[in-house]
């Protein structure tokens, strides 16, 4: 696979990693200014992404990190990352009961089963996934009542989870600093984002938090890889005109459900 495609996929995968850092309480407020930083990054989570990729990406892959951080104000080929992000974000469902500008949900991932059945129409019945690294344990993969924000448990769990993520990202960087292998690194980072962001909502402000940051990021990565194959000039206009740019293929293994059950 071409390097530009892999770089685009890596940038797409990491474009919103700053949301993770932001919710973990990492500070960039001292650098944030209306006349400079906001102009470059647009949103603070993008500045957080900038810090993450500069600290944890191997030197050989910093180009992808730049495209990831500036996805709200793209430069050059980074336009494909911005468009991929917009297309991927189309899966978010706006709140149907309160569409005010101040509507905010819990910072935990809401169980998708709440939206599939009549059960849980009351807010107190909703269940959310624990903020924990992915592992096959009942207390991790089964939803539970939402954590109270006021006692600091959510902040503490985000901090602990982000610290684990950064430690593994640092180890991965060390492996690829002297002998970089982009394809291997991308696969490893995909596994890391699944392990640590599977339980984190992609968005919770003015959007139902039932899509994980992992799913949003991997979809953005896939779309960015596809879009990187197109001439970047005029790409935005092509997408805006609803001209097809990608083909989604669904596959099924016949008889597998009967075999399992």
Summed up, what is this model?
By secondary structure, the protein is mostly helical. It contains 13 helices and no strands.
Can you describe what's shown?
The structure is a single chain. The protein is mainly alpha-helical and 261 residues long. The protein has 13 helices and no strands. The model is unreliable at 96-102 (pLDDT under 50).
Main sheet properties:
none
Mean pLDDT figure: 87
Stretches with pLDDT under 50, minimum 5 residues:
96-102
Distance between the terminal alpha carbons, to the nearest Å? Answer: 38 Å
Judged by helices, strands and strand pairing, the structural class is mainly alpha
Number of helices: 13
Principal-axis shape: globular
The beta-strand count equals 0
Radius of gyration: 19 Å
Percent of residues in beta strands? under 5%
Please estimate the helix content.
40-55%
Element pattern in H and E: HHHHHHHHHHHHH
Any descriptors?
mainly alpha
Strand and helix map with partners:
Elements: H1 3-14, H2 17-23, H3 37-41, H4 44-56, H5 62-69, H6 79-88, H7 113-116, H8 138-141, H9 153-177, H10 182-197, H11 213-227, H12 235-240, H13 256-260
Helix pairs in contact: 1-5, 1-10, 1-11, 2-4, 4-5, 6-11, 9-10, 10-11
